[in-house]
């Protein structure tokens, strides 16, 4: 039998692999089809997710409101970093465990709620800080205006700006409102301090006009320019305004000088005389003038060669550089000299008018508030910290004002007028600070009395206790910086210090000076008036009432309530 050869078919090696792919594909499709159900079963509480989104929106809105209110980005930056961190996070995979998702969104809500509270707290704290700064800047503007008024500067616009700032402060709500007030007030102070030098340039132009008139030259246009410059100076509210006016005056002076070269040598001599006068002033202040003497010699030599406008302009540039270079030393010397005079007068008067206290047998200077432990230390610290022209000018302004307060104290010390009647010294101080039309609290250290004026009329008077020899109250013009009721004073001094006191409930308190200086009630005292600022025996029997205050002004409870209820942040406080 013939058999045909039979060949078995070859089995494909890819067949098992193909079967596995089919099964894997079917399993994948089955899993995907089940995924919505699994996610629905394990994806977490939808309400928690919605709440987290709402809390995020609330925080985002609060943060934006804080920025809109003027809270600096530097303050908000830590919260913004946390915001970015939260937004970049994501919920865990919910396939088999929905609880982890719920915990994530619950924690997210908690974090956003915490950030919202923190943001609101920063807004409140920033508002308070900017409010206090605005009060300080406005008070600085007020004292600068009062001090410069006697110099005949055109300050009507800046006086109005101060009044506007006070009105704006009453209406201000947000940090940006108070920041704008501070900027405006600081610009105004800088403008006032810059005004004399700009007016000096204008005086030079006026001198040129006078010399041209003597030479029978036409000065009509130049006079109009002079009048316009003075008007612009009067309207200036920012240093940049005066800088622009100064440049105009320089150009006008240069143009005018070209028309009368014959009088240029005299102008050069006038500048030399002015420079030498300033150098002499520096010597009087005890400043080393060796470098300025060299400049003076150089100016004298250069003046001899001034024949043309070009010569004069070169000489004027050297003169201006010399004058500009000595301004810081002049103001520093003046500030240092005035403070030395102030301390000398305080010590001299105090040592010649010592008060002998019969309770402890010691002698005390009645003008303690003006000594080193009082405003004297503040002036010394201000001088030590001064670096710029504006800083030194502020020192000069402050020491001149404090010198006036000292003079009023000395006059009041020997004035027999009852404390319950208006005093001439009160009126003089209110006139100096342009406060006769305002509400003013006056504190007399000599009488240990408080008088309240409305529009220059006395409406209330009573005795107080202000300071003590070691911790005197601070003389000066102060704003009502902060007002508190039902508060607790905590001692800044440690236990064991002679000045330590237990936590003390205070019903009415008005902050008048940074560092914790208040007008407030002192329910633990019975006795007020002259002598209570020293050690004595208070009729209350309370030993803590046997001493003066820690720099505060103590009032009987009923009087403190009246003062608190009948004054406001716009009330000025005069202490002398």
Features:
single chain, 576 residues, alpha+beta, L,D-transpeptidase catalytic domain-like, 5-stranded mixed sheet, 60% helix, globular, disordered N terminus, Transpep_catalytic_dom
Unreliably modeled segments:
1-18, 28-42
* Alpha plus pi helix count: 15
Could you say which overall geometry the principal axes of the C-alpha atoms support? Answer: globular
Order of helical and strand elements: HHHHHHHHHHHEEHHHEEEEEEEEEHE
Strand order of the largest sheet: 5-4-3-12-7
* Quaternary structure annotation: single chain
The main pleated sheet reads as: 5 strands, mixed
Structural class: alpha+beta
Number of strands: 12
> What is the C-alpha radius of gyration, as a whole number of Å?
38 Å
Helix content: 55-70%
Beta-strand portion reads 5-15%
Distance between the termini: 146 Å
Q: What's the overall average pLDDT, rounded? A: 90
Domain L,D-TPase catalytic: 439-576
GO molecular function: peptidoglycan L,D-transpeptidase activity; transferase activity
InterPro entries: LD-transpeptidase, LD_TPept_cat_dom, Transpep_catalytic_dom
Pfam family, one: YkuD
Written overview of the protein:
This protein is an alpha+beta fold and 576 residues long. Among the domains are: 51-82 and 101-259, no CATH class; 419-575, L,D-transpeptidase catalytic domain-like, CATH 2.40.440. Helix content is 60%, strand content 10%. It contains 15 helices and 12 strands. It has helices spanning 15-42, 46-69, 73-88, 98-149, 156-171, 175-214, 220-235, 239-257, 264-284, 290-303, 309-352, 372-385, 389-413, 424-432, 557-566; strands at residues 355-356, 363-364, 439-444, 449-454, 457-463, 465-466, 476-479, 482-489, 504-513, 517-521, 553-555, 572-575. Helix 3 (73-88) runs antiparallel to helix 4 (98-149) and helix 11 (309-352) runs antiparallel to helix 12 (372-385). The longest helix has 52 residues, at 98-149.
